[in-house]
Amino acid sequence: MTNFQNFATVPLQKYAGYFRNHGCLWIFQHIPKTAGSSVTRELSGVLPPYCNIHLATSSQDEAESRSKSLMKEVDSFIERYKSRRYSSASGHLRQPHLRRICESLPHAKIFSFLREPAERLISDYRYAKTPKHPPHQEFSRRYPTIESYIDDPSNNNKMWRFVRPGNASADKEALSMVFRRYAFFGTVSRLEQHFQFLTGLTTCPKPPRARINVTTEQTDNSVALSADLRSRIEQANTDDYNFYTAVKQILDEKSREIDEFINDRRGFYF
Question: Which residue from 33, 45, 83, 265 could staple onto 124, CB 3.0 to 4.6 Å apart?
Answer without folding.
Answer: 33
